[in-house]
Amino acid sequence: MRKISLTFGLIAGAVMSAMLAITIPFQDQLKGNAGMAVGYASMIAASLLIYFAVRQYRDTVRDGQLPFWDGVKVGLAISATAIVCYVITWEIIYYNFFPDFADRFAAEAVAQAKASGMTGAELAKKTAEMAKYAEMYKNPLVNIALTMLEPMPVMLLGSGISAWVLRERKA
């Protein structure tokens, strides 16, 4: 299990990391949710690798028999490896090339709030929230935790679906 999980986890991590590194220089051109859509599309593509890894594990290691929870374990190992790769990539990019990310993100959120018609007290509250977020994001532990949370739901869903589809069925 370790070799399959590590191999596919590193490939999935490379897919997510490569897309992150490729899209960051174009962040200003990807307005609205386009950057997020590209990011999550790469996470979905990476999570598809979980299916192939679990299938390979079932067919080569488990002789075609795979209980659901064993499939989930393989998927989670792949997910953890991929997420660690993604976080390392983001930390390198953030601290070396994009240290003003949180401030830019906060400013964009406030601009979107203004564009949606938010004014007065609501806008002041949103501005204060985003300033607090930007300050929190400067803490490396918060930064890492929030970065881990981005791909986690997609990878967990990929693990569960793959294990369910490939599980051993009672005849």
Low-confidence spans? none
- How many angstroms separate the termini? 26 Å
Q: Tell me, rounded to a whole number, the average pLDDT.
A: 90
Name the beta content range.
Answer: under 5%
The Rg value, from CA coordinates, equals 19 Å
Number of strands: 0
Element-level helix/strand string: HHHHHHH
Q: Helix count?
A: 7
Main sheet: strands, sense, barrel: none
Principal-axes geometry comes out as elongated
Structural class: mainly alpha
Helix % is over 70%
Can you walk me through this structure?
The protein has helices at 2-23, 34-61, 68-97, 101-115, 120-137, 140-149, 152-166. The protein is mainly alpha-helical. The longest helix has 30 residues, at 68-97. The radius of gyration is 19 Å and the shape is elongated.
Helix and strand topology:
Blueprint: H1 2-23, H2 34-61, H3 68-97, H4 101-115, H5 120-137, H6 140-149, H7 152-166
Helix pairs in contact: 1-2, 1-3, 2-3, 2-7, 3-6, 3-7, 4-5
Quick overview of this protein structure:
The chain has helices spanning 2-23, 34-61, 68-97, 101-115, 120-137, 140-149, 152-166. With 171 residues, it is mainly α.
Kindly list the characteristics that best describe this protein.
171 residues, mainly alpha
